[in-house]
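Hey team,

Filing this mostly as a record. A colleague (T.K.) asked me to run one chain through the structure pipeline before their review meeting, and I want the input and output archived in the tracker in case anyone asks later how it was produced. No errors, nothing strange. Just documentation.

Input sequence:
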Amino acid sequence: MSSPLTEDQIEELITKALDARTYSYSPYSKFRVGAALLTQDGKIFQGGAICAERTAFVKAVFGKNLEIFFINPDRAYKRAILADLLPHAFGPEDVDQVEK
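Output structure:
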């Protein structure tokens, strides 16, 4: 199975994830964690600290990015589609259904 990501995209995500470690506040563990994810429209979101992946994911979701690729430094990646992760999410189309 071939990757939906190009070699350049993989390299950029690894670099961005490693760079995101500089934002990690880890005064006790001294274990700096960084994460980067790529959205369907080519944007890269970064997160640092213990919740690095969650931080990057939340940034992407608030930016209305619905298809995301996560990658680890070992080049393992995961494709996540928001509708699969949150199948019963509340959205703008639900506002009209609320009684006033």
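Quick notes for T.K.: The chain has one domain: 7-81. The domain at 7-81 is CATH 3.40.140.10 (Cytidine Deaminase; domain 2).
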